[in-house]
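Dear colleague,

As promised, here are the two records you asked about, laid out in our usual form so they can be pasted straight into your sheet.

NAME FIELD: protein one
SEQUENCE, THEN STRUCTURE:
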Amino acid sequence: MAFQFALLGKSNLYGRILIFVLFILITVLLSSESSFLLGEPVLGPKIGGSIFSILQIGFLLYSIQLLKALGPVSKNIIRFLYIYAIVGAVVGLYIANPFVEIFDIFTRRYLYILFHIINTGLFLLISFYILRDIFASKATHSDHIWGALVAYLLTIFVFGDIYEIITLIKPGLLGQVYEMGWPNYLQCVMYSMNAMSGIDSAYPDSHSLLKKIAILEYMIGNLFLVVILGRLLSHPLKK
């Protein structure tokens, strides 16, 4: 499998990562509306959390191969990410599922916080290598455009994890208390999507702290588009 991954170019890796990211966002969207779609609020998040964990494996494996292609990256980081991909999937399918209570609430809360801190670092690491590759080149290639799309979408998950960490520490800041684990996280990702879009908030009762962070996210998203478009348009496109 590793040999097959190694044969893929950067554009192919970006394309596969985008597919996983988009399916994750669709899973989040559908899970957040399970009451409307399925007539009850429990089954949707349960299924959605399992699908999310499976998609996360694919996202992480292709991201590891992308980091190798964009490198150099420390072998210890790569080993850690492989382990994290497997452990994270197990956590998502069993421990993080609110319907399978292996640990008490106190332990789970701090496991989730640790999980999302690592997630935030991972997304920032991937974005760093992507942006370094884009700005280090004197020409624009098609894979740079794909990479910019990946980095932009990863911003949604970076802030989604930040909102999740905050609401784990202080539940209810989204306007109501959601079940710890996937149900709360999917609301945080939806909140982040809402903030990046710049439209009226779907969470009008959220705490002012989250609203201020959402404004920051919206500004960063707009600045990213301005800077990345300026970079891509200022250099000739080469295939």
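NAME FIELD: protein two
SEQUENCE, THEN STRUCTURE:
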Amino acid sequence: MTKKTSAPKIKHMDTGVFGANSAKLDKIGVSRFDLSDPYHLALTLTWPQFFASLLVVYLLINSIFALLYFIAPGTILNLQPGSLLDAFFFSVETLATVGYGNMAPVALYSHIASTVEIFVSMMLTATMTGLVFVRFSKPKAKLLFASQAAVSRSSDGEPQLMIRVGNGRLNTLHDATARLSTLSSSTAPNGQYFRTLIDLELQRSSLPYFPLTWTVIHKITEDSPLAALRDATVQELAESGLRITVSLTARDPSLGAQIYASHAYSAADIALDMRYADAITANEDDHSVADMRKISNLEPDN
């Protein structure tokens, strides 16, 4: 007679350092704005931060050259002596290589300064053009994740974890691959604390054709790392500290590039005994219509 082992209890998960969207990620010893890597910094800034930084650099360069023109009176034709504003506007015209003709360098000093400024202008224009192009050319996934994961019963009565993902573009995505992970923490007999990233086996991990929606499913068997969810109550789930991350990659043929997106779910984002409501309907001519506004809609699992 064999002894039946009960499902292991859910171990406390480390929620402070795991997750792609809602979790806080803190690191000590690294800087958010690393000036030694300006290219990466320029690409990771938000658009408002990027344009604000560009404006600061533009004003700084013009201010420096304006001071160079200001400290040498008489070297710029028609520049009013003692007018820092005129010197600034002359710098702007020189940096933009506009040359309105009202003010012009008339001495060797001003010719050298304006030559250096024009060279800086060429470098700045080339650099900023490249950065703006790279930022615009970065592919955006536009994958829509349900706000909550759901635990329901399959046709054979087994519990399953489901996460619905929607294709937010009008065109079809190809070669989509999903990965579901959870983070487990444990303490060794010697007292050492371990964090282990565990991949959850999916009923289907790839989809060659992804036009509308995809429900990623993990069967919660007795051998699953989430086995405690088989009989867990809402309170037990909330106290577990469970955290799950789903990541998805696909190829967007309209962009000709690989796209990637991920989403994290805490214990509070997992609905027990619920399933996703239908978001796809078919009309009389067998034309499927997906309502992405219903991507997160849940209904009781009867």
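A couple of things worth noting about protein two: Residues 108-137 form the longest helix (30 residues). The CA atoms of residues 180 and 215 lie 12 Å apart.

Best,
R.
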